[in-house]
Amino acid sequence: MSAFDIATDNGIAVLTFDLPNEPVNKLNAAVTVEFAALLERLRNDGGVRAVVLISGKPDSFIAGADIEEFTRLTTQQDAEALSREGQEMMNRVEAFPKPFIAAINGACLGGGFELALACHYRIATDGPKTQIGLPEVQLGLLPGAGGTQRLPRLIGARAALDIILAGKAERGGRAYKLGMVDELVAPPILRQVALAAADRIARTGVPHRDSRGGAAAALLDRTPVGRRLVYKEARKTVLRKTGAHYPAPLAALESVRIGLEHGMEAGLADERRRFGELAVGDVSRKLVQIFFATTSLKKDDGVRDAAAADVRPVRRLCVIGAGFMGAGIAGTAILNAEVEVRLKDAELPRVGKGIKAAASILDERLRRRRLTRPAHQRLVALLSGAADFSGFTRADLVIEAVFEDLKVKRQVLAEAERELRPDAVFATNTSTIPIADIAAGAAHPERVIGMHFFSPVEKMPLLEIIPHAGTSAAAIVTAARFGRKMGKTVIVVADRPGFWVNRILTPYLNEAGLLLAEGVPVELIDQTMTRFGFPVGPVALLDEVGLDVGQKAASVMRAAYGARFEPSHVVDRMVADQRLGRKNGRGFYRYEDGKKQGVDAGAYAVIGVRPRDAGVSPTMVEQRLLYAMLNEAAMAASEDVVRSPRDGDIGAIFGIGFPPFRGGPLRMLDDLGPRRVVEVLQELASAYGERFTPAPSLVAMAADGRKFYPG
Amino acid sequence: MLKSIQRKDVMSTVPPSRRAAIVAGVRTPFARSGTILGDVPALTLAREAVKELLYRSELDGAEVDEVIWGQVVVSVLTPNVGREVSLLPQFPSNVPGYSLNRACASGAQAFTNAADQIERGHADVIVAGGVESLSDIPILHSRRFSRTLVEAGKAKSLGGRLVAFGKVRPRDLIPLTPAISEPSTGETMGQSAEKMAKENGITREAQDRIALMSHQRAAAATADGRLTAEIIPWFGGRNLDEVSTSDNGIRTDTSLEALAKLRPVFDRKYGTVTAGNSSPLTDGAAAVLVMADEKARALGYEPLAYLRSYAVTAVDPGWQLLMGPATAVPKALARAGISWNELGLVEIHEAFASQVLSNVQAWGSKAWADRLGLPGPVGEVDWDRTNVMGGSIAVGHPFAATGARLVTQLANEMRRRDVQFGLISICAQGGMGFAMVLERT
Q1: Cα(B136)–Cα(B140) distance, rounded to whole angstroms?
Q2: What mean pLDDT is predicted for residues A390-410?
Q3: Whole-angstrom Cα distance, residue A587 to residue A575?
Q4: Residues 356-415 of B with CB under 8 A from A
Q5: Which one of A107, B20, B422, B439 has the fewest CB atoms closer than 10 angstroms to its CB?
Q6: What residues form DSSP beta bridges with B181?
Q7: Exposed, middle or buried: residue A547 (CB in 10 Å: 0-12, 13-18, 19+)?
Q8: Which of A340, A342, A348 to mutate to test the interface with B (most CBs of B within 10 A)?
């Protein structure tokens, strides 16, 4: 089946790209072949004066290359050859003897934008779906079809690096301002304007493009000395943001540099060589796996047959508990899911504070111009609150975020149930209480489900959904779909203490406490783990979570799982000293105006140690912390706490910040090999205690060579 | 003068199923201008009242056919507040809305317009109400300065702009604020109230007694929750944790002595109208949910009361400006086909105590009855059944919101006392009078 259609009118050939049986257009091998043949035909067709490339899809121009094809690359040579093919295709477009115009509406990303860059003239719409950029580095790659060469030449080194190194995409308006496209038009007239431009350019040639950016650009972008400064600055930014764990941005920077300093040909050669290296490299492989995992999670409603479940869309959400968590849920739900939210608390002043906190999430977007003023006004109007249950009879979903106390939660559920429709879903936001316990005694236990949000809700990407044994499929699907509408990555996990994320996090945090109790300095612990790739170290994380919260969670986990989860005395002593972490400005770190400063030396006295650097190797710190988590992950996985290794790894990456380039704890166990992991755990157990006893499932896997991810 | 009364066609021919039922009503706290609602745009007040009306009545916004809204001092940026309210996301976008101005009777007019539409069968469910923010009034430039700004805007060069501004004189820069005065006579409301006190022989003490009663009754109805049940909580302050659940103009501790100490405002020497016996400038919004009886019942609501009749009249503004009710009330009673004595409750809007007493005097007067061609006086006011929860002097008077407040307040009290008929009387700017009769069954 053909992906392109050609209609010629008045000498202008309109080339419409509409990939059959796909929601979006993407570039794959078959498309490339067909496109090359069409180019030949159009070139030789005397009746054609100019070509307009436009998409037949409503929301995408070309969303990029087909990533599936990347996963089939086995050698660097193959990957480099793929890049070369892409480059040659773009070169042919650029060298096309007749004007070639890109008419862009919707996603114009990666290879799609590289194709547009090779065109002689670009027109984009200001439609809401228009996104133009080069996101390749987010998959551990670089733009391998000339993107590192053509974008800097078009918009200058600084602006181009800004997009390429961060893997950014811009809306139509911003793309036009930056010079990424030549014209910006309203979507309905795109085709018409493109036809007119094609006719004009066929007669009078491509208009001159004014150079942008004024004096700064003249100095920085257009002199070798200035550019040297730009490269240096970009390199520093990359290293600060990625901690040198991600090779792609630095590789892209190098390709840009070589292209600008030594010419396009050298640049293209460097680009395809580095693309080859990156594409078969470990980091890109991991990031691509995560990409596919999150993509498949977006379609996963958490039950076997979601179509059979009687699910109603959520139009009104009621949130009980207007504290930090409840307000965060309310604000995020309005912002991303655009539903009515009714915030309920026992006292009106608390309701008011909650409304303020929820609205501040929207206000922040307005300030950063992510929301227009009318959109902001419309969203704010979705928010209301009360001290009674008014508004609950029309609720489709209730999320309760009251104090972590079983009795309180059950009482709130009983009160709400008196008001709710029988088919409304009741979700409880808890991190420590079994959902089955909360649901016990409910009039309709089948509609009770756990939704474990992470704090701050508007920023944390993960949501754990926890059905108890009696939860209906409809409730699971409702919660999962709504969680995704809120912008969360959703995993459905088992109703076991700690669920998944806190289950594997607790031994890790406990181990950090034990290290502290031995006198290992805070800096050594935290720096070791940030070097490993975590965004923050475990001690800083304790401060963030709140030591009282951590203490409570740890004791619940200890009660559930026994001696393996025995915490150190460190957190108890900190809490006894009123050191609750960031929230009261006193923790392992010092805080000034809410900003984290250095380590608070006073904390050592509180926990009763003298910090000692000598004799503690970072390797051992890393091993103890990491293996505590890996072992627990294996244990929980064997208890089916997660439905698949995919969910487990995504949960760890999005819930804890487990380094994405390592693929997640279960992927890491596969990479390390169960046999090796068991050996290390046994050594750790004999040196540090029983808690490191290898999970029986790991021992079994070591024996029979099974893996979490077969194949 | 009341020709229509003499016609015998006064009883409504509306089929029972289409009767306009008052299902619910809410309002914001009424706040003296420049206090807790001082920074809140009128539109926000109106939208919050309507949102809360929907949540409290558990009504799906998709059931609403129209929004009708009153506003007297219109905000320049949102001249059609009714449409802006109907654009709340709680409604589907196909709900139309409009605004009207019947001066201080606007909220009542919004309600009766809704009733008209429902009785005609054009609508089943309408949200009606009114809003006023006297903290948020438009301030105008002088004509000359406005013209300068327009010219400067059109000027093509900086020079042209400077030339335009060069014509401005200092006096052109004095802003104009809309006065609460009659465009036709130049007389302010207060001056009219003062004039009525003198012409009708209303004493200072009589006026102060009305004011005292208003405050005492409003305070009692606030304390026992009858008034506050209709008030939505207002979240104010920087962190929205300063919550108001009642009106802030009600003085629980005032006395005749305290009221007597106040100096007259409009005639400092011989006057009797004071800030104490007048309604204050007030910010607030009120909303009423109106439905066809059959629709209300189909949705499971028990109506509070129904509209039985209404009448709007006018007198010469240059005569006694606030005397409209003297003619409107007999007309509404005639249209209702009932006599004054059948009224179980009466709500008289208190713009000024002198106006209330002037209206009361007229209703009880044989001379007035003769003037109107009525067989006898309209009726004697029984204060035990009149303004039983106080009135605008204590509660406050956000112009266009007052009528909607009165509808809700009267309907709720009629239900509580199981009263069959209730009357609302409102005087309005321009010499207009508005009266309506509600019935329970």
Answers
A1: 13
A2: 95
A3: 9
A4: none
A5: B439
A6: B188
A7: buried
A8: A348
Q: What is the ipTM of this complex?
A: 0.91
Q: Which residues of A touch B89 (CB under 8 A)?
A: 338, 340, 378-379, 381-382
Instruction: Find the radius of gyration of the CA atoms of chain B.
Output: 22
Measured distance CA(A122)–CA(A372) in Å, rounded: 27
A313 touches chain B (CB under 8 A): no
How many other CB atoms are found less than 10 A from the CB of residue B315? 21
Write down how long chain A is: 711
Least CA distance to A393: which residue of chain B?
B58
How far is it, in rounded angstroms, from Cα B187 to Cα B181? 5
Q: How far apart are CA A130 and CA A59, in angstroms?
A: 8
Nearest by CB to B240, from A342, A355, A393: name it: A355
Distance CA A84, CA B80 (A): 62
Return the bridge partners of B351, or none: none
What average pLDDT does this structure show over A469-497? 97
Question: Hey, what amino acid is at A685?
Answer: A
Catalytically annotated residues of A: 464
Tell whether B205 is within 8 A of chain A (Cβ): no
pLDDT in tens, A423-437: 999 999 999 899 999
pLDDT tens-digit series, residues A195-224: 999 999 999 988 888 777 777 777 888 888
What is the pLDDT, as a whole number, of residue B164?
Answer: 75
CA distance B240 to B233: 11
Instruction: Check if B141 is active-site.
Output: no
Per-position b or e across A21-35, b if 16+ CB within 10 A of its CB? eeebbbbbeebbeeb
* Residues constituting chain B: 441
In DSSP terms, A318 is beta-bridged to: A342, A398
DSSP state, residue A209: P
| pLDDT confidence of residue A214 | 75
Which residues lie closer than 8 Å to B135 by C-beta, 6 or more apart? B33, B34, B37, B38, B39, B40, B283
Helix (H, G, I), strand (E, B) or coil at A122: strand
Q: Which of residues 570-589 of A touch B (CB under 8 A)?
A: none
H-helix or E-strand containing B284? Answer: strand B282-292
Q: Does B89 touch chain A (CB under 8 A)?
A: yes
Taking CA atoms, what residue in B is nearest to A340?
B90
φ/ψ (deg, to 5) at A466:
-125, 100
Question: What is the H or E stretch that residue B234 is in?
Answer: strand B234-236
- Residue contact B58–A348, C-beta within 8 A: no
- B174 inside 8 A of chain A by CB: no
Query: Which is nearest to A52 in space by CA: A5, A82, A12?
Result: A12
Contact status of B58 with chain A (Cβ, < 8 Å) = yes
What pLDDT tens digit does each residue of chain B (441 aa) get? 454 454 444 456 789 999 999 999 999 999 999 999 999 999 999 999 999 999 999 999 999 999 999 999 998 889 999 999 999 999 999 999 999 999 999 999 999 999 999 999 999 999 999 999 987 777 777 777 777 878 777 777 878 777 777 777 777 777 666 666 788 888 888 999 999 999 999 999 999 999 999 999 999 999 999 999 999 999 999 999 999 999 999 999 999 999 999 999 999 999 999 999 999 999 999 999 999 999 999 999 999 999 999 999 999 999 999 999 999 999 999 999 999 999 999 999 999 999 999 999 999 999 999 998 999 999 999 999 999 999 999 999 999 999 999 999 999 999 999 999 999 999 999 999 999 999 999
Read off φ and ψ for residue A490, nearest 5 degrees. -110, 130
Distance of CA A695 to the CA centre of its chain: 30
Is pTM beyond 0.90? Reply is yes
> What share of chain A in percent tops pLDDT 70?
99
> Which among A492, A498, A509 has a CA at the least distance from the CA of A427?
A492
